[in-house]
């Protein structure tokens, strides 16, 4: 049990991925939760039909399910007093969160292409395009 006796269950694959920020928030806040990781091969047949919107991660709060990693992270940060002390602090937190999200979204296709090692010319083109986008985002 955590704040106000709430019980939390975070459901995701046995990987960091989109659930990792929620796990970090639980750790930083020192809050207990169940870290439920799907068994290999069970997502499509057993877990997805019960997942909110058929996506993951899911966070259960006292048995009520919620989806979307960004919404989950923002909720937990607010719940545990990690969202600042006012609207402007919250805006600053959102700004960092969404900048990191945009960077990740820009870079992910390049990482996938490189990891697959099947399409090096595409990976090189994506890298050049993404470097320009990242530079613009960070300036």
Characterise this structure.
The protein is an alpha+beta fold and 139 residues long. 54% of the residues lie in helices and 12% in strands. The chain has five helices and four strands. The chain has a four-stranded mixed sheet with strand order 2-1-3-4. A hairpin with a 2-residue loop joins strand 3 and strand 4. Helix 1 runs parallel beside helix 3. The longest helix is centred in the C-terminal third of the chain and has 30 residues. It is flat, with a radius of gyration of 18 Å. The protein starts with 7 loop residues before the first strand and ends with a helix.
Tags for this entry?
single chain; 139 residues; alpha+beta; four-stranded mixed sheet; 4 strands; flat
How would you sum up this structure in a few lines?
By secondary structure, the protein is of the alpha+beta class. It is 54% helix and 12% strand.
Give the strand tally. 4
Strand portion? 5-15%
* Main β sheet profile: 4 strands, mixed
Order of strands side by side in the largest beta sheet? Answer: 2-1-3-4
Helix content: 40-55%
SS-based structural class? alpha+beta
**Mind telling me the C-alpha Rg?**
18 Å
Number of helices: 5
What sequence of helices (H) and strands (E) makes up the elements?
Answer: EHEHEEHHH
Question: What coarse outline follows from CA principal-axis ratios?
Answer: flat
Q: Unreliable segments (pLDDT under 50, ≥5 consecutive)?
A: none
Give the averaged pLDDT, no decimals: 86
Termini Cα gap: 43 Å
Question: Any chance you could write out the topology, listing elements then pairs?
Answer:
Blueprint: E1 8-12, H1 20-29, E2 34-37, H2 43-47, E3 58-61, E4 64-67, H3 69-79, H4 87-116, H5 120-138
Parallel strand pairs: 1-2
Antiparallel strand pairs: 1-3, 3-4
Helix pairs in contact: 1-3, 4-5
